[in-house]
Design goal:
Layout: H1 12-20, H2 31-44, E1 62-65, E2 82-85, H3 99-103, E3 120-121, E4 127-128, H4 132-140, H5 147-163, H6 170-181, H7 192-205
Helix pairs in contact: 1-2, 5-7, 6-7
Length: about 210
């Protein structure tokens, strides 16, 4: 997972829908409002799912309510409660689903703007957290240790190991971290949080 900084200016059609209709909800919002939100969250997240870091686009993204609409109807139209999640596990068996498709009406209660420092990865691909509550939600709310995602993260670790197979200087490692954190073309590499985590660990040991 990577930090996500929300635009302080919410999409204009979202604001119009909320202020013009006393019974407004996300579900009864117009299609152009939802499309505007989809484009906004994809841009904010540099084209990555807020949870698993796979690729999203305006045509595939699911607008996720971190605190669910079912449990928190008052936050249905709160832009700070919205994020972009992938649709990659749609149609799979329940045990193989992940992110908001698995989450359904459960709540993810952690702030995504400062999530990165709370996350750890293992070389074999498991995601975890030293915070027991967050660790529980990674597994039981988001199902982020499903076999497919573990395999993908392990492949990313293998790429990291290959990058470091030749000795790198602190400058070279920091340059790679900067490149992954602030891409020039507006899209971050899928699973980039995994690589950044291990690069930062290596940098701390030099």
């Amino acid at each position: 997972m990577i930090n996500i900084q929300k635009n302080p200016n919410e999409p204009s059609l979202l604001r119009r829908h909320r202020t013009s209709n006393p019974r407004a909800t996300y579900d009864n919002g117009p299609a152009d409002m939802k499309s505007e939100i989809q484009q906004a969250v994809v841009k904010e997240q540099f084209g990555l799912c807020c949870y698993c870091m796979q690729r999203i686009s305006p045509g595939t993204v699911r607008v996720e309510h971190k605190l669910s609409q079912h449990n928190h109807p008052d936050l249905s139209l709160c832009y700070d409660n919205m994020a972009g999640a992938c649709s990659c596990s749609k149609g799979l068996r329940k045990e193989d689903q992940y992110c908001d498709i698995y989450k359904e009406d459960k709540d993810f209660s952690f702030e995504l703007s400062c999530i990165q420092d709370k996350i750890r990865y293992e070389p074999k691909g498991k995601i975890k957290s030293p915070d027991p509550q967050l660790d529980d939600q990674l597994n039981n709310v988001l199902n982020l240790n499903v076999k497919y995602l573990i395999e993908q993260r392990r492949a990313v670790y293998d790429g990291f190991a290959k990058f470091l197979s030749h000795r790198k200087t602190r400058g070279e490692i920091q340059s790679k971290i900067n490149q992954l954190s602030s891409p020039r073309k507006g899209l971050k590499a899928t699973f980039c949080g995994v690589t950044i985590f291990f690069l930062q660990k290596r940098l701390a040991r030099i």
